[in-house]
Specification:
The chain is of the alpha+beta class and 162 residues long. The strands form three sheets. The protein has a seven-stranded antiparallel beta sheet. It has a three-stranded antiparallel beta sheet with strand order 1-11-12, with no helix packed on it. A hairpin with a 2-residue loop joins strand 11 and strand 12.
């Protein structure tokens, strides 16, 4: 069913909600690293420890997550706009070439300098229109750098007043 709402107007309404910026990363079965900028992140459960996000159905990163069954969710700091921009572009593994990472317990890439991360295994997937809702079971989590978060509001990056 097609929505009668104008997608441009709806995107503008969605833009009124300030979000943190995360990057989801995975080591694909081909050994290459994939990543994507995500602002649809949410905590879901403490017992069991679960988090969720949504990815557009055609995403190369989604395909790699479905194959690898493990991924990381990295909470970006305000000084990581370049990483957010690199991973927001369309494309595949080449987007991760500029992103410094180390492997987590699942083997998923953890972004250096993030203010927090969750290393997850794929718990469930749900249909979400033109997106897939991905639920991860968190196997390891840690707070990183003590920096302000990268925020997104009204189609642009924002910072907390200091």
């Amino acid at each position: 069913m097609t929505s009668p709402l104008d997608p441009k107007a709806l995107r503008q309404v969605f833009g009124q909600f300030c979000t943190g910026v995360t990057a989801v990363c995975v080591s694909g079965p081909d050994g290459r690293r994939y990543g994507i900028t995500v602002n649809s992140f949410s905590s879901l459960s403490l017992d069991p420890p679960l988090a969720l996000f949504a990815l557009v159905r055609e995403s190369e990163t989604l395909k790699a997550i479905q194959a690898a069954r493990a991924f990381s969710i990295n909470i970006l700091a305000e000084n990581q706009q370049d990483i957010s921009n690199a991973l927001a572009r369309k494309g595949g593994a080449e987007k991760m070439e500029v992103v410094p990472t180390h492997p987590g317990v699942t083997g998923a890439p953890i972004i250096e300098g993030s203010i927090g991360y969750m290393d997850c295994v794929l718990h469930a997937e749900y249909e979400g229109g033109d997106h897939v809702i991905v639920v991860g079971e968190i196997k390891q989590a840690a707070v990183g750098e003590a920096l302000p978060p990268l925020l997104y509001f009204r189609s642009g990056y924002k910072t907390l007043p200091g």
